[in-house]
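Lab notebook page, bench 4
Experiment: in silico fold of construct C2
Operator: M.H.
Input chain length: 327 residues
Purpose: comparison with the prior construct
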Amino acid sequence: MAVTVIVRVVARHGDGGDTRLTFDGTQRVVIGRGAGSDVRLPDASVSHRHASLRAQGGDFAVVDEGSTNGTYVGEVRIAPHTSRVVRSGDKVRVGRVWLELRMDQTPVTRDVAAATRDLALALVSQAMAAVGTDRTPRVAVVEGRDQGAKLSLGQADRVYVVGRAAHCDLALDDGDCSREHLHVTVRGGTVFIRDQGAKNGTQLGETRAPSDRDVAWRPATMIRIGRTVLALEEPVTHTLAEIEQAPDEAANDAPPPPADPVAPASPSLSDIAGLPVPVAVGGLDPNTTPERAKAKGGWSVTDLLVMAAAVSVLALSLAGLVWLLRG
């Protein structure tokens, strides 16, 4: 059986929406703020290694890993380094963040490491959007004659051209740079580059970038083309790193448990599995009670049964009296 962790509420960061990760029920799932966590929650009230989910026989248990602000199942706090069995649908709070747990046969999330990073970045991005902070990634020239120049990558799926030609989106005054040296594109929140067959090539970190396919460019890796060095500035990634490096913050303003979805209306008789819809017999509405039938001016079913019993008793009495007189 798999276990799914759904981020229900992230205080100060707005609602995380229906963001979920599903894990194989046999593995231990670490919940925390650190980059090594399986469920990575960018909130300073969450400790770097806050809690974990573990299989316990046929059940699952949540364990507090000695967190600063504690781990709660509903409103009940778990003692540090102790466990508590949880059921499907239980809500667990770590710091200011509410999680909902589901245990079922949901398919396990593929590439959990990438999905965990995407989860953290998505939550930070939502928080920045809520307060109006610019989230646009940028290419910055950090070495070379154009040092200080920047290219904003504000349009997803657009191809930005870096090179020596004047028509390039980022035109470089570098004789060792080709006219159209490099293409840069943002897709799905990730920045990709492709060398355009430049004579001097494109150095991505310690390796030469291929010219036959796109490769991902991460903020920690520099690009060198000719005598120019480029850096990728991603405000969301930078903010995530700042949150992870911050000390634990008291969760004094922790939110209440998120409300459950509104329950559906009570099902009709026909909606209940295994119960057939009653059929009218002899023109009588199956939902009409004997009292209602009588109120309409006719004999009710109860009246007919009582009369039949009375006639039977009278017939037996007459038969007994005749037998005595003959004797």
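Observations: The longest strand covers residues 2-10. Residues 92 and 198 are 54 Å apart (CA to CA).
Next step: discuss at group meeting.
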